[in-house]
């Protein structure tokens, strides 16, 4: 079974010049379940990824959290620092905080190669790119669990749909950019 048969075909993406504030608003949306926002150029080539952790790291730097835990700063000082940081960084382009170290897989790869990378890197999702580096999908732990569920319900799934490009509908909740 190939990754293209189980991947989400419309992962959340954003341009590199989008302001960080737009991602904060998007992640704050109660209907959003996606954990990864992929940064792509105008041609759709994957540039990086921004997760909630990058956003939290921008506004809650480890040194601020450490000082607070050691009792070296008061709650009003933390709030003041946070508000200053929000003002200073709200228009920062996402390219300045995106991670570029995320591994990728190809749509034609065997699905277990995704599971191996997810486990080794301790991540929840992998971007799927074509030979030009264009983002074409995403494979997540949740997608693999859906595959298991489908196989429990229909053990012949592997043989019945071996030529299918998509075994089940796997879409994202929202699209940016």
Q: How would you sum up this structure, described in words?
A:
The model is unreliable at 170-175 (pLDDT under 50). The radius of gyration is 19 Å and the shape is elongated. The protein is an alpha/beta fold and 177 residues long. It has a domain at 3-57 and 93-158: CBS-domain (Roll), CATH 3.10.580. α5 (111-121) links the parallel β4 and β5. It is built from seven helices and six strands. Strands 1-2-3 form a three-stranded mixed β-sheet. It has helices at residues 20-28, 52-59, 62-69, 75-89, 111-121, 141-153, 157-160; strands at residues 13-14, 36-40, 46-51, 105-106, 125-129, 135-140.
Report the CATH topology name of one domain.
CBS-domain
Determine the mean pLDDT. Answer: 86
Rg on CA atoms, Å = 19 Å
Q: Find the structural class using helix and strand composition.
A: alpha/beta
Shape: elongated
The number of helical elements comes to: 7
Low-confidence sequence ranges: 170-175
Trace the largest sheet across and list its strands.
Answer: 1-2-3
Order of helices and strands: EHEEHHHEHEEHH
Say how many strands there are. Answer: 6
What layout of secondary structure does this protein have?
Blueprint: E1 13-14, H1 20-28, E2 36-40, E3 46-51, H2 52-59, H3 62-69, H4 75-89, E4 105-106, H5 111-121, E5 125-129, E6 135-140, H6 141-153, H7 157-160
Parallel strand pairs: 1-2, 4-5
Antiparallel strand pairs: 2-3, 5-6
